[in-house]
UniProtKB/TrEMBL annotation:
Coiled coil (residue ranges): none
Compartments, as annotated in UniProt: Cell membrane
UniProt keyword Membrane present: yes
Domain of life: Bacteria
A single cellular component GO annotation: plasma membrane
Transmembrane segments: 12-31, 43-64, 85-113, 136-159, 171-194, 255-274, 286-308, 314-344
Name of the protein described by the UniProt record: Flippase-like domain-containing protein
Length: 355
């Protein structure tokens, strides 16, 4: 096993789930203690309707994963089987769940795809292109939601908060920071993938001559080389294949953003939100995911619960916000930790230990 492989395996050690779980539970418990109102949890009754809509919530997450799997099949030109893309997506989500949202990194995803039989250059190209498609969805949908829902309404934490000046709303500032990072990233990646990959590599190497980031210059050189490989792989793709890959991306993220809507319906019924309210909840989820980009905790743990409680809590009965946030994270986050713990040891035994 190479030093790089050993380093990657250390970074995805299942033991690392302890930290995000501990942070998430601690923040949930603290918010529950601070915000609890006697009798409020009695509103969360379980019925056939609850079971049905929670099942729909799980189906949405399955649809989200299917969209990711379909996209990997398209990008790999069907050289990856459905079983292989399932393992890759689950391990990819597990890795994202135990590393800070702000850190990210493509090396682990490239590692997973490469070990499933795709040559290294193509694996790198696939991961960079999935990142490009994800960011493109965010970049296009975020301003559209602001125009449709209204910026102040989308970022409000209460009906009265819409009167606040935009720079006094911390959620707007977090979202703008996250969106700016994504916009800069996708502009640089687009330039490197489709216009001048060698030029972008030279620019990266020039930037990383600065003393305070010079120690990361080797990684910048490696990333630039990967970008050149990715450009050679995909710049001659037909438009039809690009559309299919982007549609799979859109289906995946849209399914994820409808999740909270179905959880609210599960416990409070269809009438709690009007059509505009459901669209507002959908938009707020996208904003939460953008804000999580700047979270220093693994998988946004703790920050996500806090943002949900403060950002969506006023749309549902008082005192139930943190409980709903926990259910949301249980389905959309903790489930990947559990699945990853079961899949990872078998995957390592098959692809690393035997080799």
């Amino acid at each position: 096993m190479t030093d790089n492989s050993a380093k990657i395996l250390k970074s995805i050690n299942p033991v690392r789930i302890i930290l995000p779980v501990a942070i998430g539970i601690a923040v949930t418990a603290y918010l529950m203690y601070r915000e609890y109102e006697p009798g409020s949890l009695n509103l969360l009754t379980f019925s056939i309707q609850t079971a049905f809509w929670l099942f729909v919530s799980i189906l949405l997450m399955a649809t989200r994963d299917f969209g990711y799997m379909l996209r990997l099949r398209i990008l790999s030109e069907k050289s990856l089987s459905w079983k292989k893309v399932f393992n890759i997506i689950m391990l990819w989500e597990f890795t994202s769940a135990i590393t800070p949202s702000a850190v990210g990194g493509t090396s682990v995803a490239v590692f997973f795809i490469n070990k499933e039989g795709i040559r290294l250059g193509k694996s790198t190209a696939i991961v960079l292109l999935t990142s490009f498609l994800d960011e493109l969805y965010f970049i296009l949908s975020f301003p559209a939601l602001i125009i449709i829902a209204g910026g102040l309404t989308l970022f409000s934490i209460s009906p009265e908060a819409t009167a606040l000046t935009w720079y006094k709303n911390p959620f707007i500032l977090f979202a703008l920071l996250g969106y700016s990072i994504k916009l800069i990233y996708i502009l640089a990646l687009s330039y490197g993938l489709f216009v001048n990959p060698r030029g972008l590599k030279l620019l990266l190497l020039w930037i990383f001559k600065l003393s305070f980031i010079r120690k990361w210059r080797p990684q910048a050189n490696e990333s630039g080389s990967e970008l050149i490989q990715a450009s050679n792989e995909f710049k001659h793709w037909p438009i039809k294949k690009w559309i299919r890959a982007f549609m799979a991306t859109a289906v995946s993220w849209t399914a994820r953003y409808w999740l909270v809507n179905t959880i609210i319906i599960a416990f409070f019924g269809l009438r709690i939100l009007d059509p505009e309210g459901h669209f507002l909840v959908f938009g707020k989820q996208l904003v939460i995911w953008i804000m999580m980009l700047v979270s220093p905790t693994p998988g946004g743990s703790g920050f996500a619960e806090y943002a949900f409680h403060g950002f969506l809590g006023y749309l549902i009965p008082a005192g139930t916000g943190i409980a709903m946030a926990f259910i949301w994270r249980l389905i959309s986050y903790y489930s990947y930790l559990i699945i990853g713990v079961f899949i990872l040891p078998k995957w390592i035994k098959k692809h690393i230990t035997k080799q």
